[in-house]
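User: Second chain of the day. Same drill as before.
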Amino acid sequence: MIAVTELTKRYGPTLAVDNLSFEVRPGVVTGFLGPNGAGKSTALRIILGLHRPTSGQALIGKRRYDQIHRPLHEVGAVLDADAAHPGRSAETHLTCLARSNGIGRARVTAVLEEVGLASAANKRVGTFSLGMRQRLGIAGALLGDPAVIVLDEPVNGLDAAGIRWIRSTLRSLASEGRTVLLSSHLMSEMAVTVDHVLIVGRGRLLEETSMAGLRDRFERDVLVRSPRAAELAPILAGLGATVTNTEDGGLAVTGADASTIGDAAASASIPIHGLTPRSATLEDVYLAMTGEAAEYRATGERETRS
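Assistant: Same format as last time:
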């Protein structure tokens, strides 16, 4: 388990992480989400022993990262897809990592196969696409068969196939009982990847919940289409629902689910042409929660000139 307790980090007058506390448990993919400048990368670097906190602590299995003798056996991490030397081959890069932690050459071959880079093992990293470099980074993270995986923005710049591959890989690792922490600012991608979310802004924890819980917390309505919408509206209002006319002649109904609406319409012999449950997208929810914490915000939409 990863345990972060009252973590604070200052760089001169800049407060990058502000009294941050959370836990990341095994068996689920945990998303570490927030806008650019929220302190996500700083917190990850502290967890991995690359930065020292101003106060507080970050522990992996009740130890600081620098107290782990051979860290690749316990923690696999990718903070930068470009960390490998461009002049080395993929195999040479992984072999150097393996030797530093007492890992045999057979494991290098195995992880190259696992991430789909066996055919590119002897190619120079400098010739790799971003997706291939991401795969190589994850191969390095998996070398020691660790129980903890930490990734910083692994889907940036990837195509659909690369994103799908990372998504399935992370979910597979979590299903094996590993602890998986994934940092991102892209809620639309994380919505189909993570099980639990930690949302941060300006270095502080704004929200911690399951992805399902995040979906369920926000108001939903039902879009109703009927040729006799004007007759149906007061009937639904009489049931305690709130009914609003839409611009295209439909009804937006809150306070009653689709089955209740359908039953009420049937009792009144009013035909229904459509019942569509709706809710705010997770991206809408995320932007609403982090809007005030965003470091950089545009003033508005750009005008279109003819």
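The radius of gyration is 24 Å.

User: Great, on to the next one.
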